[in-house]
C-alpha cells in the first residue's frame, strides 16, 4: 500500500521515490524523474558502478542493467504491460545496448518503445520472445548498418518498425540491413530525429 501511494506521488510530484526493497538479484529502486532512472541505495549504487548487474523498476517495467565503459547495458526487461517503454538513462548514464532476447519476459507487450534509448548496436535475436509485439520504435540516431546483426529481427513478429534517424539516407541503409531478418510483410517507417 505504501509503495502504491509513493508511486502515485512520484507521478504527481515527479520527485518522490518508493523505498528500496531487497531481493535475490540486488535492490529494486523506484524513482521517476522524466525519462531518467536513478539508483538511490548506496550499496546498489556501488554494485552498479562496479559493473555488476542490478535490477531497477521504472513504473511497471523492471530492467536488469549493468554499467560499462561504453554506456549502460540492459540485460533483461520484465513487464506485463501492453506498451513497454524504456528510459534512456540510468544514473544520468546513457543506455547504449540491449542484450539478445532481453524482451523474452515481455510476453504481453504489443509495443516496444526505445525512442529514448540511444542504441549503438542491435544484437542477434534482439526482440525474440516478445511474441505479441506488433510495433517496435527504435532511436537509430547512433546506429549504423555495420552495428546491426544480420539476425537482429530473427524471432520477432512485429509488422511495424519505426526508426528515428538523422537522415533518410541513413534510414535506407538501416532498413536494408534489417530486412535481412525481418518477418515477411514488415513495414518500416522513417521519423526525423530532432
Task: Describe this entry's structure for a reader.
The protein is α/β, with parallel strands linked by helices. The chain has a domain at 100-194. It is 16% helix and 35% strand. It is built from 3 helices and 13 strands. Strands 3-8-9-6-5-4 form a 6-stranded mixed beta sheet, with helices on one face. The protein is globular and about 45 Å long. The N and C termini lie far apart (40 Å).
Can you give the helix content as a percent range?
10-25%
Distance between the termini: 40 Å
Q: What is the count of helical runs?
A: 3
> Roughly what is the average pLDDT, rounded to an integer?
82
Order of SSEs, N→C? HEEEHEEEEEEEEEHE
Arrangement of strands in the largest sheet: 3-8-9-6-5-4
- Describe the biggest sheet? 6 strands, mixed
Radius of gyration: 17 Å
Percentage of residues in DSSP E strands: 35-45%
Number of strands: 13
State the secondary-structure class: alpha/beta
> What ranges have pLDDT less than 50 throughout 5 or more consecutive residues?
1-36
Backbone shape: globular
Structure in a nutshell:
The chain is 16% helix and 35% strand.
For this entry, give a set of tags.
single chain, 194 residues, disordered N terminus
Helix-strand blueprint:
Layout: H1 2-13, E1 17-23, E2 26-31, E3 36-37, H2 42-49, E4 54-58, E5 61-68, E6 71-78, E7 83-85, E8 89-90, E9 93-98, E10 111-114, E11 135-139, E12 160-165, H3 168-178, E13 187-192
Amino acid at each position: 500500500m505504501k509503495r502504491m501511494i509513493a508511486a502515485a506521488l512520484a507521478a504527481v510530484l515527479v520527485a518522490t521515490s518508493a523505498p528500496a526493497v531487497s531481493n535475490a538479484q540486488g535492490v529494486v529502486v523506484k524513482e521517476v524523474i522524466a525519462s531518467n532512472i536513478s539508483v538511490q541505495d548506496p550499496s546498489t549504487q556501488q554494485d552498479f558502478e562496479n559493473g555488476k548487474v542490478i535490477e531497477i523498476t521504472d513504473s511497471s517495467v523492471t530492467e536488469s542493467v549493468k554499467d560499462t565503459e561504453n554506456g549502460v547495458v540492459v540485460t533483461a526487461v520484465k513487464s506485463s504491460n501492453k506498451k513497454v517503454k524504456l528510459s534512456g538513462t540510468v544514473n544520468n548514464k546513457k543506455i547504449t545496448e540491449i542484450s539478445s532476447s532481453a524482451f523474452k519476459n515481455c510476453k504481453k507487450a504489443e509495443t516496444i518503445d526505445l525512442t529514448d534509448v540511444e542504441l549503438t548496436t542491435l544484437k542477434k535475436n534482439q526482440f525474440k520472445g516478445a511474441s505479441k509485439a506488433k510495433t517496435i520504435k527504435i532511436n537509430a540516431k547512433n546506429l549504423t548498418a555495420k552495428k546491426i546483426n544480420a539476425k537482429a529481427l530473427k524471432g520477432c513478429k512485429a509488422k511495424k518498425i519505426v526508426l528515428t534517424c538523422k537522415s533518410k539516407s541513413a534510414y535506407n541503409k538501416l532498413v536494408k540491413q534489417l530486412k535481412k531478418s525481418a518477418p515477411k510483410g514488415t513495414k518500416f517507417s522513417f521519423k526525423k530525429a530532432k
